[in-house]
Amino acid sequence: MPIRVPDQLPATDILRGESIFVMSETRASTQMIRPLRVLILNLMPKKIETETQFLRLLSNSPLQVDIELLRIDNRPSKNTPTEHLDNFYRQFEAVKERNFDGLIITGAPLGLVQFEDVFYWDHLKTIMSWAKEHVTSTLYVCWAAQAGLKLLYDLPKRTRKEKLSGVYSHETHNAYHPLLRGFDDCFLAPHSRYADFSPSYLEENTDLDILATSKEAGVYLAATQDKRNVFVTGHPEYESHTLHTEYVRDCGEGMDPQVPVNYYPDNNPSNEPHATWRSHGHLLFSNWLNYCVYQQTPYDLDQFSEKNFTTDE
Questions:
Q1: Is residue 25 part of a domain?
Q2: Which of 2, 56, 166, 196: disulfide with 158, CB 3.0–4.6 Å?
Q3: Is 300 inside any structural domain?
Q4: 235 included as an active-site residue
Q5: What does the alpha-carbon distance between residue 259 and residue 186 come to, in Å, rounded to a whole number?
Q6: In angstroms, what CA-CA distances link 244 with 9, 260, 271?
């Protein structure tokens, strides 16, 4: 939330230069507040587990957020009860005429599948294109980040030879960028993907602000200059046992996976893993809600227009 200060206070310009949201008394006295509308397109098979993880991160904010859940198609689910989907999820046709403050597109277990072979690829492209004119800021997570880069920059799918799995150290860049507000210079975050996000490749082929990278995992966080598209290549929403569950699953399927890096104490899967990324996960989502959504979105969503947005920090 903003700091409210007297008009013309000398400290205002300094704080704004550090991406601290400062609101003058004049603006505060005329400010109208309403709940933010955030749509979550859940592409993961275990939808209840995934929606819980994202809702936990979105809840750590003083902003009031109204959540709606979106499914990509109406095929029966093997991992989520039909009753749950019917009661809590909407089809795109039910929301496409409306505007939203934020959209989150989750990851999907499609790391080794080519885009054109994804059953719902054309429908996903339709939703992503729709977001350009109906959503203030879209957050692409893991596989969705790769899909978003294909749509926005026509970047071909790049796949690692081995799955990236574990908890990796990252360095921040552009310390005063709003999305990095409050971040340590180095922080931990989990990854579980085949997708390759090379910093040099993104720098050469996009105009994205590269905000956090890892020597092992590549780009973790990037955003367009207007903050309307944010890419997170890891899984800040993961719970402490999520990587363990995936590791056990892959072992059971005879995939002979590598032990997730920097995850189990002493690198021993028999030891209880601990979440070491939770604080930065909450901070990232809080910053996204505040600086990319709340600070950018029009009060009247019916007045939504791409002209409302600038690249000014």
A1: no
A2: 196
A3: no
A4: yes
A5: 23
A6: 51, 8, 10
What's the whole-model pTM score? 0.90
The interaxial angle of helices 278-287 and 47-58, nearest 10 deg, is 70
154-213 tens-digit pLDDT: 999 999 999 999 999 999 999 899 999 999 999 999 999 999 999 999 999 999 999 999
Any domain includes 103 = yes
In a domain, 247, yes or no: yes
Range of the structural domain that residue 172 is part of: 35-295
Catalytic residue among 134, 170, 191, 237: 237
Q: How far apart are CA 240 and CA 192, in angstroms?
A: 13
Q: Which pLDDT tens digit goes with each residue over 84-122?
A: 999 999 999 999 999 999 999 999 999 999 999 999 999
Provide the 8-state DSSP code for 292. I
Separation of CA 8 from chain center: 36
Sign (positive or negative) of CA dihedral 89, 128, 138, 109: positive
The count of structural domains within the chain is: 1
> Catalytic annotation on 123?
no
| 285-to-45, 96, 200 alpha-carbon distances in Å | 22, 24, 26
> Which residue among 170, 191, 235, 282 is the active-site one?
235
Instruction: Report the CATH number that the domain containing residue 129 is assigned in CATH.
Output: 3.40.50.880
